[in-house]
Amino acid sequence: MRLAVIGAGSWGTTVAALGARNAEHVNLWARRPELAEALNESGENPDYLPGVAIGPVVATARLDEALDGADVVALAVPSHGFRSVLAAAAPFVPPGSLLLSLAKGLEQGSLKRMTEVAAEVLPGRDDGRIGVLTGPNIASEVAAGMPTASVVAMGDETAAADVQRLFMTDTFRVYTNPDVVGCEIAGVVKNVVALAAGIAQGLGVGDNARAALITRGLAELTRFGLALGGNPLSFLGLAGIGDIVVTCTSPRSRNRYVGEALGQGRPLAEVLAEMKMVAEGVRSTAVVLERAAAAGVEMPIAEQVQAVLDGARTPAAAVASLMMREAKSELDGIRLLG
């Protein structure tokens, strides 16, 4: 198979390197021509994965070249730029290709998942061949060859199996799951929970508090995903609990890092200004809350995270607000699990 990866950040570059192990040919699109040139000359990504060899990958800053003859198109573009990049790429996306989102966010304004955006930008395609690759996947660890598991969610089981074979290696184990909605929503909301876990870490309120936030955050994620039609089992799998654990605990997690800095009292603008990569949860939290409200889903942790991001509440006040909520049964918010 021929693979095109659109987006040369750390995860896009890593996925291109993974694909190069099995694909007939891999193209990697970089927005900046100088980065594409550096990738081709050095065989590594000096901006996002310095020192990591990416194998036989051809980088280009031209979308027509990147997409030429692609059987699988992986979109490694942050949610806020996803639509515009895909719209620019649309004339060159081969009609029969599989589309795979690597982003973990919702679109502001439309409140759509990235696979929904892809279906809208590329009308007339089989929705079953538009999916998502997600799970507990810290890019630097995957690129270093550390054992990792992931999940490809796609409605067409044959297409999902094709993607599974493309990316499966001796260190990167890929599972399939037909539940695109559940897996995609889990990837979005876990970033919001990671911000909360990071805030708790920054405040120094202890491991008990962080564990409670992760657990109740999983309950919020599950309520939201179920309301949108997700499968309960997906939230207990790699896309759900797997991703939430790594994103809330790893020092390499961007969202956890931002939350920790906020918990330490640093201004959000200052924290974001020093980061090369995007912390999707910062933009996604408000969008998650808007879509959750439309679905009638209560998300108290996400509400407090947004209040901290807005500067409307201090991290300490946000934690206190969660602790003083009305007493209730632990099962109240998760009865739909069965």
Please give a structural write-up.
Strands 3-2-1-4-5-6-7-8 form an eight-stranded mixed beta sheet, with helices on both faces. The radius of gyration is 19 Å and the shape is globular. The longest helix is centred in the middle third of the chain and has 24 residues. The chain is of the alpha/beta class. α4 links the parallel β4 and β5. α4 packs parallel to α5, α8 packs parallel to α11 and α8 packs across α14. It has two domains: 177 residues, NAD(P)-binding Rossmann-like Domain (Rossmann fold), CATH 3.40.50.720; 157 residues, N-(1-d-carboxylethyl)-l-norvaline Dehydrogenase, domain 2 (Orthogonal Bundle).
Task: Describe the strand arrangement of the main beta sheet, using strand numbers.
Answer: 3-2-1-4-5-6-7-8
Q: Unreliable runs, pLDDT <50, ≥5 residues? A: none
Described by strand count, sense and barrel closure, the largest sheet is: 8 strands, mixed
H-E order: EHEHEHEHEHEHEHEHHHHHHHH
Distance between the termini: 41 Å
- What would CATH call the class of the largest domain? Alpha Beta
Mean pLDDT: 95
Q: Which radius of gyration do the C-alpha atoms yield?
A: 19 Å
- Name the CATH superfamily assignment of the largest domain: NAD(P)-binding Rossmann-like Domain
CATH topology of the largest domain: Rossmann fold
The domain tally reads 2
| Overall SS class | alpha/beta
Structure annotation, total helices:
15
Percent range for β-strand residues: 5-15%
Give the overall silhouette: globular
CATH architecture of the largest domain: 3-Layer(aba) Sandwich
**Tally of extended strands?**
8
The helix content is 40-55%
